[in-house]
Every structure is written in structure tokens, then in C-alpha cells.
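Re: weekly structure request thread

Next one in the queue (157 aa):
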Amino acid sequence: MVSSASVHAPISAVARRRARRGLVQHLVTADETSLVELQALLATLPMCATGRVFIEVPDASWVGPLPVPGRMIVTWLDRSARSGMPGSGRACGRGTALTRAATAWADEMMCADGDGTEVHLLGGYLGTAQIVDHLVERRGRAAASVHAPARYGLGTC
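Done, posted below.
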């Protein structure tokens, strides 16, 4: 059986430096159904906030300017330009691109449970549930430390 310690990817140098400095970083996810909630959340972040915002949308026509703190990076994920499961030949389903991006970022940037990362998941249920599962099961994060809509019943705050 594989131990949980061997499942984690190596920690990047950037993530180690961030953890040493004790900086809070933000992981924010959204989709086309939660853009208003996303704008409200981003308006509450301090101007010095750092982190990543992933937004999954049906196609490029949804992409537009979004006011964010200067140290936040916004990545628009256009579903129409992505594929589904590798080798399946299928189109990208709702939540798939968001899940891939957020879990890859978490694996690289989240060092430990006490790393000071604020997680806000505003996307649809499927993507949000998969991201929560990854953060809890693979990254060892407490579900209560992840902010997701209460209506999803994921045991998050």
C-alpha cells in the first residue's frame, strides 16, 4: 500500500519560500454561473492579496476584464478549446477544466495544511466536489478550511 506521504508531489521552491514568509495566498475557482459571486469575493480581497483565480467558461466570448489585486493571476479556462478525458475524443465537460487546473495548482503551491492558503470554490457542484475531494484526500486539508457554497453539502465552511 502506498503511504500518503509518497502520494504528494515534490514541493516547489516558490511554495517553500511562500510558506517560510507566512504569506496568505488565495485559490479561487468559478464558472459562468458564479461570476457575480466571484466579483463580490474579489472586491473583498486586500490589494496586496496573492494567488490564483481559475474561471471556467463555455467559450471565449465569456472572457473579459476582471478587476483583481495586482498579485493575483486570472486564468480563463475555455471549455470549447479543451478535450475531455485523455484519449476519449470527447469534449470537455462542465467542471473538468476547472478541476484539472485547481488540483494541479494545489499540488504545486500548497505545501501543508497550515500553509496559509485561503480556498474559495465558487464553480458548479461537480468541479467543486472533485476539488474538495482532492484537497482533503490528497493534500490532507481539513474540509472545514475550504469555502464552498453551503447548498452543495460538502462539509466545507
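The helical segments are 4-7, 13-21, 35-44, 96-109, 125-138. The chain is about 30% helix and 20% strand.
Next request, please.
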